[in-house]
Amino acid sequence: MKIHLKPLAEQVIVITGASSGIGLATARRAAGLRARLVVAARNNEALDELVVAINNKGGKAIPVAVDMADDGAAAQIAARAVEEFGGFDTWVNAAAVSMLAPLTEVTLDEHRRIFDVGYFGYVQGTLAAVAHLRDKGGAVINVGSILSNRAVPLQGPYSAMKAAVMGFSDALRMELENDGAPISVTLIKPSAIDTPYIEHARNKLGAPAKPPPPPAMLYDAELVAKAICFAASRPRRSLTVGGSGLMMTALAPFQPRLTDLFLEEMLDEEGQTGDTPPAPDAYDNLFEARADGRTASNQDHAVRSTSLYLEAQMHPLATAALVGGAAALAGGAAWMLRKR
Asked: Is residue 41 part of a domain?
């Protein structure tokens, strides 16, 4: 089955979770690449600001204020896309909520809420997208995480939810391929990204949350947006954003016990708390929308704006040629030295 995806400038793209972080960065990037957008989130005010900014720059976007945990949210988004644009070509699931707490302190309601938004919200969004795209073709892009492959302490419900997203995405991809449906299914797996995630998360650690400490790298949300926009026009099974995620996605399965010990040491309570409190109006959006409109956190820390690992995944042939050329040069230099 050959899947053909349109250039972004010819697409209508649906993005959930578009009011902040990765979803917001993706909406801005896609609009800059001339895609027409249907942006969805709970925060109507933040969506309106985004839509006005896009339309004022000559783009075209419409907002849909919905909670992806609500039954029928995806159907409402799809209906607006059909009403305004005649349909859509790519559906991006990026909505999520989270919390930081020991599992023994997470209530069942809190646990369910994380899954209702970040898993069942993806399920209903994906099913609406597949129903629309089954005959015409297109792309479904799910934002997972490196935590899809390896859980970390104090973020247990979120880790479990992202693992479920990966399982769902993999099963869907196989079923669509068996059916001959021309739909690309991509799982995006960000490493640690500088977004308002830690501000929006409900926190039971007793101190302000902070991003992972070194040796983890913190990456710009724009890199994830770049990966998502790439996958919207070029079929990919998955893309991991940030080389620091390699340990989770590649090495951890071979050294699970060593990874346990490393994560227990690096991401204990001290490793995930700091001194910078969240913005008061942004804190804890688990059950209610809070202040949005930012792609980055309020933390003062270094952020990487490049990812060679992502570039290698997006352009494997060019990367292989570069590596091969470098190896040939090294071999030639070694031969010359031996000859001399």
From this structure: yes
Q: Which residue has 């970040």 as its token pair?
A: 118
Contact 90, 126 (CB under 8 A): no
Pair of tokens at residue 265: 């040491």
Question: Exposure string (b/e) for 115-147, b if CB count within 10 Å is 16 or more?
Answer: bbbbbbbbbbbbebbbebbeeebbbbbbbbbbb
Spatial CA neighbour of 15 closest among 77, 93, 73, 79: 93
Using one digit for the tens of pLDDT, what is the confidence trace for 317-328?
755 544 444 344
Number of compact structural domains in the chain: 1
Q: What is the CATH number of the domain that holds 27?
A: 3.40.50.720
**Cα 334 from Cα 90, distance rounded (Å):** 49
- N- to C-terminal Cα distance for the chain? 55
User: Among residues 167, 191, 196, 183, which one has the least CA distance to residue 91?
Assistant: 183
pLDDT per residue as tens digits for the range 72-101 = 999 999 999 999 999 999 999 999 999 999
Q: Which residues pair with 38 in a beta bridge?
A: 14, 62
What residue type is assigned to position 144 of the chain? G
Domain holding 289, by residue range, is: 8-306
pLDDT at 324: 45
CB of 177 closer than 8 Å to CB of 202: no
Could you give the C-alpha distances from 279 to 197, 219, 290, 291, in angstroms and in order?
A: 12, 21, 10, 9
Lookup: tokens for 183: 């739909």
Token code pair at residue 211: 């991003």
The residue count of the chain comes to 340
Residue 337 lies in a domain: no
- pLDDT at site 212: 84
Q: Taking a C-beta distance cutoff of 8 angstroms, is the pair 119, 148 a contact?
A: no
| Separation between Cα atoms, residue 115 and residue 137, nearest integer Å | 28
Q: Active-site residue numbers?
A: 158
Which pLDDT tens digit goes with each residue over 12-35? Answer: 999 999 999 999 999 999 999 999
Asked whether residue 324 is domain-assigned, the answer is no
Q: Which helix (H) or strand (E) holds 253?
A: none
Nearest to 227 by CA among 50, 94, 78, 71: 94
Calpha distance 110→327 (Å, rounded):
52
